[in-house]
Structure formats: C-alpha cells, structure tokens
C-alpha cells in the first residue's frame, strides 16, 4: 500500500506520516522545500519524540521524498499508483496541490480502485475545498476524472510546535492525538489507519475541535502575545490570560452544546484536557506559531468569527470571544505576511470596512456592530 503525503512539515512528519506508516503504508512525502526533501530522501528513518506525560519515541521508516516544484512528473506518477493522498500544507496552499493530484488521476487506469483523498488541515471541509480546486485544475476533463478518486473530510488534532532550525527531520510532538475521518465516502474499503476513527457525521467533530482546541489556542496566543509571553505554556501562567481563554471557551462550549447536543459536563472535561495539553511544559510552542496568519484566523468560518457569529445569532454570550478578537487585532509579527497586512488594513480602513472585508459579515448580522466597536477601539489604540 502506498500513500502520497503533500507537506512534510510539522504535522506531516509528526502525525499524518507517522499514522500512515503505522497503518502499513509506504509513505511518499512531497514538498517544495528542497532542503527538507533532500534530507528525507537521504534518511532511512526519523523519530517522532512525544514529550510530556505518557510520551514515547516512535520511529518512521520505509518512506521516500519527492520535490513537487522540481519534479512534478514524478509526483504525478506516484499519485497515479497510490492508494491514498493526504495533505498538511495549510488550506490556502491546496490550490497548488490540486494540479498534481489531477495529473496523477489522468495517468491512473479508470478501472483501478479509487484514490482515497484526505486533506488534513485546520479548516471545515478542507477536502471539499481540495476537490473544488481539483475540478478547477482539471477543467472540462473533470467529469471523466472525478470517479477515479473518493474524498473524505477529516479533523486532525495533535500539537506539533515549530521545530528548531537545523534540527534535522526528527519531530517533537505532544503525546495526545485524534484523527476523525468521514466514513461514508470509502464504502466497504476504508483506508488502513488504526490510529484514526471513522465517523458518520464529521460536522460536530470538526466544529468541536476547531472551536475549542483552535479557538482556545489562538486566544492564548493573542492574549499572551499582548501580555509579552513567548510561549503558550508561559501565557497560561498569567491568571488573567487563563481566565480570558476560559471565558472564550465557555462561550464556544455553550454554542457547541446548543448546536450539536454535546453534554455540558463532557464539554467541561474536553476543555480541561485541552488546557492541560496547552500547559505541557515540555512543548516549546510559541505564540507566533499559534497566532500565525491572523487574517485567516479572523475570516468568516474560522475559529473566532465562526462560533461568535452563530452564538450571537442564538442570543448567546460572546464577550470573551470579542476580547480575544481584540487581542488578535493587536498581534504583530514582522515575519508574518498576514500580521503585517492586518496592521496595514487597520490603518487604512474604517472599522466598518475592516469588519466587512476581513470577517465577511453583513452589516445586518447581530455580531457586526459589536465587532465594529472592537475594531474601533483597536484603531484608536494605534
Ligand atoms: N502543527 C500543528 O500542531 C497542526 C495540528 C493540526 C493541523 N495542522 C494543520 O496542518 C497544516 C500544516 O501545518 P504545519 O504546522 O505542519 O505547517 P508547516 O509549515 O510545518 O508545514 C507545511 C509544509 O507544507 C509545505 N508546503 C508549502 N507549500 C507547498 C506546496 N505547494 N506543495 C507541497 N508542500 C508545500 C511546506 O514546505 C512545509 O513543509 C495546516 O493546515 C495546519 O493548520 C497543524
Ligand atoms: O495551524 P493553525 O495556524 O490553523 O493553528 C495553529 C495551532 O492552533 C494548530 O496548529 C494546533 O497546534 C493544532 O490544530 C492542534 O491540533
């Protein structure tokens, strides 16, 4: 069995590649970072170091690596004969992966078992997005190609911090992980991934993950950065920040319970586990990594505006989320293109224009005036 995995970065090596390997796949990593591809191609194994309580080392072997920028034909050939394609590149990069998967499908015999495609990104419906990008890349050939693949959305959860520069291809991760995958698209032959669980309806899982783990993570990063903290664990040692994060998460939990029926006690335990994961002192996870790409994180269906909009529509509290959004507006990182753009947009646009453009909310939405106030305060604070 063979899996082609696009994006050999933190989660690619530290989670998706590891679980595919443990499921019995030969993993072919595909990436555009030449140094990383060369290092993987030259290695026979790498180690995933799980740090913190219950962690152990796991070794990945039997992989190969291909550079999709310099060797697209080889990538297409690998995809053509693969059983599984996964991605962990970031949702905005899926449009660049799509042409490679389409090129592979063009070479794949029509009577071959369908390629099983799963995008493992922090976004609702990431595989659906990849599929749309593939349809665009294929143009009028799509109707003859789409039957050669099946598409399943997934929710992946494991904190994999940035790895030290020059540290090689080993990866340091937390011990916890969860991978939920839609079951129905695979019919009788789901992929062999013992570490994953297959679910009938992914909607509640991905929303619970994105609106708890990622809302809490981002709230900690932005409140922490504003308070001068360097890491997530350090930020949570400040009681005011911890209280701010707890408040935002109580609001998203109330929404998730109202919308999906998750019992309140289950959500309380889920939040406790997550906050304990964030506090893992062995995990060197920076506020810059977790706060990266703030414009993506402030977009309509993401971890802040997504739950806050739905909570406001239901008349639920959103004050904690608005405080975290205020902190997000103050996030500055000269190395992060979106953080720089965010600063420019705040200087250039009126609060109304900013809310409309960045969050995509309509002026008639109940959250809209509250966001305009938050943006107005951020603009005034300079
Ligand atoms: N790190 C985590 O804790 C974590 C956990 C769950 C989900 N995720 C999600 O996984 C995705 C990747 O996150 P990450 O933390 O591993 O980021 P990362 O930056 O460590 O890895 C991304 C990799 O994609 C590669 N890449 C960029 N453009 C590419 C292209 N056109 N073709 C092939 N490869 C390309 C990069 O070179 C890099 O190696 C994101 O969607 C993220 O939200 C991350
Ligand atoms: O990857 P992002 O930028 O969407 O979010 C940053 C972190 O919150 C994220 O990578 C978490 O570590 C991960 O989602 C945990 O499962």
Automatic annotation (TrEMBL):
The keyword Oxidoreductase applies. NAD(+) binds at residues 3-14. Residues 201-343 form the Mannitol dehydrogenase C-terminal domain. Keywords: NAD, Oxidoreductase. One of its GO terms (biological process) is mannitol catabolic process. It catalyses: D-mannitol 1-phosphate + NAD(+) = beta-D-fructose 6-phosphate + NADH + H(+). One of its GO terms (cellular component) is cytosol. Belongs to the mannitol dehydrogenase family. This is Mannitol-1-phosphate 5-dehydrogenase. The gene is mtlD.
